[in-house]
Fold each of these.
Amino acid sequence: MAERSSSPEGGDEAPSLPSPLPAASSTASATPSTSSATSVSSNSAAVSSELPLPLIGSVVLVSWDDNSTHEATVVQSRERRPGQLEYYVHYLAYDRRMDEWVALSRIDLEDYKKQLEGDKPDGPKSSKRTWEPTRKVTRNMKRKTEASHMGRAGTGGSQASLDAVEREYEKNTKIKHITSVYFSKYRLSAWYLSPYPEEYGKLPHLYVCEWCFKYMAHRHALLTHTCTRRCPPGREIYRKHHISMYEIDGAQEKLYCQNLCLFAKLFLDRKTLYFDVGPFMFYVLTHVDDTGAHVVGYFSKEKESHENNNLACICTFPPYQQRGYGRFLIEFSYVLSRLEGRIGGPEKPLSDLGLIGYQSYWAWELLTALHKTDEPVTTAQLSARTGITQDDVVATLQWLDLIKYWRGHHTICYTTKQLHAATVMRKLRPPKLEVDTRCLRWCPPTAPPKEERAAGGDDA
Ligand SMILES: [Zn+2]
C-alpha cells in the first residue's frame, strides 16, 4: 500500500515550510498558439506566445497553490509533451529540497516581460531581479566531494581542482530527476539529487528494497526481488523493546553502506559521501516488528577523526521523522564518544535539518545540566559534564541568551526564571526516546578496529 508521499516539512525537527503546488498536468491552457521572436528556450518547444518564455538563469515569480508567489531561478526547461513546457526552478528563499519542475502556467510571464522591458534603455524603471548563489560549497564539502570521486588519497588537490569540484557539485546538485521513491510501503518524495548511476538517476521513480537498499528501475523488479535480509548486516549493539542499533564497518559491507548512503542522499543536502565508505563506521537504527528490523535512520562516523568528530552524516528517513529518532541518533553518538573518553561533535557544516536537531539536543542537555547545579559554572565544566564541545556549548548558550562576552571571556549568567524562559522561547521539550546505556553492548575499539569488529561477526 502506498501512503502519501513525504512532505518537505516532514523533517525530524524540521521547520515548517509551505508546500508548492504539485507539478501536475496543467500546462495546456497556458500555452498560447501564436509565434513570437522572443520565445527562447533551450528545448525549442512548439509553445510560443507574445509573452517571452523564461531563459535559463532568469528569476521569475512562481505561483503556489495558496495563491502566493515566490521568486525562483529557472534552472532548466523541458518539453514533457508537445506544447507542454516545464521549468525546473529553485526558490530563492528556500532550501533546495523545494526545487521542482513547474508547469509554464505557474510562472508569471507578464512580470517576466516587465523585467525584460526594464532592461531596455527606454523601458520602464528596471524591475529586473538578480540572482546571487545563496549557497557556497565549503572547503569541507569540497574535501568530501573530492574524496568521493577520487578516493581519499586525492584529497590534497590544488585550488583549481577544488574549484572544478565545486562547479561540478553545483552543476550536479541543480536538478533532481528522481521525484519519488518506492520504499517499503511508502512512496517518498525525493528532496535532493542523489548520484545513482545514470540509467537510474534520470528516472522519475525509483524502487528501493527496504532490507538491502538495492535500487531498481521498475516495480516488477522490486516485486520479484528475493531478499533474504531482514535486518542490517554487522553487529547488533543495542536493543531495548522495539529499538535496535547495528554497527556496520563500511569496509566490510561496502555495497550495503553505499546503497544506504545513496538512498539517504535523496533526503540530505550537504553530505556528499557515497562511494568511499571504507573509512567509516555506520550506526543503523531500526524499529523491530514481526517482519524484521526496519531501518529508520543512521549516522556514520569516521573511524579516525583528527578533529574528534563523533558523527559525519545523520539521516532519519522521512516516514520515521518527528518521532524522536533523530535525537536518539544524536544522543547515541555522544554516548559512544563518552565511552571512548572523548569530547566530540558532529562534522561541520551541519545541514539545515541537522542544525535544528543538534540545537535542540544541545539546548536540552545544557539546560538540564544548569538546572542540576546551584554553583556558578564555566563552559569548560559544562562541556565536561555533557560531552558537548566547548564551541558548541558557547554557541548554544548564545542561542539561548544565557551567556555574555565580558572582558575577553564568555560568562554564563542566568536565573531560574531565565532558564524557564529559554525553554519556552526555543520550544524545547523532553526527549521522546532516550538511550538506555544498560542496553548497550559496545566497547570502544582498543586494537585496530577492523580486526576487533571482524571478530564480532553477524550475530544479529
Ligand atoms: Zn533486498
Amino acid sequence: MSKIIYKIALLGPSRCGKTSLISAALAEAQQFLMRTPASFTATGPTLKRIQANNQALAGALAADSFHSGALFGTEASVHYKLSLSVGKSTLPIEILDYPGRWLTDNEPEFDTVRKWIGESNILIVPVDAVVVMESSGSAQTAAAKHRLNIAAIEDAATHWARERVLSKSPGKVLFVPIKCESYFSDNGGRRNQSNLLFQRVISTHYKSVIDKVRKESEGHQGISAFYIPVDTMGCVELVSADWKNPPAEDILECSATYRVRGVGERRVLGAGDLLVAIAKMIAQSEKGADRGYLSVLWRYLKGEDKALMEAIKSLGERPWGSRVSEVVI
Ligand SMILES: Nc1nc2c(ncn2[C@@H]2O[C@H](COP(=O)(O)OP(=O)(O)OP(=O)(O)O)[C@@H](O)[C@H]2O)c(=O)[nH]1
Ligand SMILES: [Mg+2]
C-alpha cells in the first residue's frame, strides 16, 4: 500500500507560537508515552530543527528576564515529520509550519497552506493568550482582533469545515492558547485567571470563528472543537504588557516583558492532550461512520500492526487533562 501520512494543520498569524508549540509538543508527548509500548519521535532534519528551536527557547531562559523574541520567525514552509510507533510499525505524522505573515499579509504562498488545511482532519489554532488577556478598552480590543488575525482565521477555518463536509470526513478544531503561564496556577503560577481566559478566547475573540465552522458544517456528523491551553515554556511570568504604535503603523501592537520563575527550568504542560486529540480522531474512524481518508488509514493500521492500532485506541481513551474543555459546535 502506498505510504500513508497523517496530516495536521496549524492556523495562526506571525509570533502566535506555532513553531514553539510543535517543539514543545514533541518533548511532552515523549514523556506522556513513557511506560506504554508506543513512542513519538522525530528523525533527521525534523529532529535537528526541533532541537535547535528548543535550544533557542532554553537559551532565552538563561537570563533573568525572558526575551520573548528568542525564536526567530519562520522564514519558509517546513514539514515537521514525526512518527507514532510501536516496535517497527509506524504511523507517519506531518505538520506544516510556515511564516505566519503569509496568513497576515494574504501572500500567495498561503495557497499551499490552505490546500494542506483542506486535507487535514485536525486543525490546530494557536492563540496568543497575552494579546487576548492584556487588551482592554475599545482601541486595544480592536487592535487585538487585528493582531490575532480573526478575519483570516475565520476564512481558513470555514474552508477547513467545508472540505470536511465535501469529503464526508470528520474533523477536530483545537483552540490552543499559548503564552498562558501567567493565567493558570497549576504549573507554578500564582494567579488563576483560567476562567477568564476561556471566556475571552471562546466566547469573545474566536466566537465568530466557531460560529462560521458551525454554520458551514450544519447537518454534518463528526465535527468537534476543543480548548487545549498549553504551556510551551511554563517557567516565565508576565511582568508588563504595553500597547504601542509600531513605527509607520496606525494599529497598536502588544509588547510584553517577562521574568523567569525559579531556576528557569522549562515545564511544558498540556501538549500531551494534543496527542490524545489526534488519537481520538484516528480511532473515531473505526466506528465506520467515515468512508473517507480516515477509514483508509484505519485499514492501513489494521494491516500494519494490531499493536499500533491498539496503542492509538488506548491513547484516544485516555482522560483529558484538567485544562481541556469541549467547545460546543
Ligand atoms: N511567554 C511566552 N512566550 C512564548 C512561549 N512560547 C513561545 N514564546 C515566545 O513567542 C515567540 C513567538 O513564537 P513562535 O513559535 O516563533 O511563533 P510563530 O507563530 O512560529 O511565528 P512565525 O514563525 O513568525 O509565524 C517566541 O520567540 C517565543 O519566545 C510561552 O510559552 N510563553
Ligand atoms: Mg514559526
